[in-house]
Design a protein that fits this description.
By secondary structure, the protein is α/β, with parallel strands linked by helices. It is built from three helices and five strands.
Length: 134
């Protein structure tokens, strides 16, 4: 089984992905909050703040792929909240993954990246981002 680091594991999407995929992958789950669901062997949960760069080296050790779902999902969050949780943590995680030789990095973002387009416009996969908020 591939060893996968799943960030944001206590969130709605992280929890759903883990439950649906736990028989296919060996997960190292991480979040700032403990999950509300049981985590059984061979999976493990590591409570961590992804803005702590030193913790990321440990989290990425021996990992083959990262599914990065962590971040503040609130479209009304201010920049002071988004900067560490969404921007810096992603940057630090990408750097740690590269140094650890992680082969795949799956980064999920939100529909907020295209909410600035008119509602009647069809968006293609190559369209530029057009956020409606921070």
């Amino acid at each position: 089984m591939h060893k996968v680091l799943l960030t944001g594991a206590s969130g709605r999407i992280g929890q759903t992905f883990y439950i649906a995929s736990q028989k296919r992958y060996n997960f190292v789950l991480t979040d700032v909050r403990k999950p509300s669901y049981p985590v059984q062997q061979p999976h493990q949960f590591v409570q961590a703040d992804l803005t702590e760069e030193t913790k990321l080296k440990e989290l990425c050790s021996g990992i083959e792929a990262i599914v990065h779902l962590a971040g503040v999902p609130d479209p009304n969050a201010d920049f002071a909240e988004i900067l560490p949780a969404n921007i810096l943590s992603t940057t630090y995680l990408l750097e740690a993954a590269s140094k650890a030789g992680v082969k795949r990095f799956v980064f999920a973002s939100s529909a907020q990246t295209i909410e600035g387009y008119p509602v009647d416009r069809q968006i293609s996969s190559g369209a530029a981002v057009a956020p409606a908020n921070l």
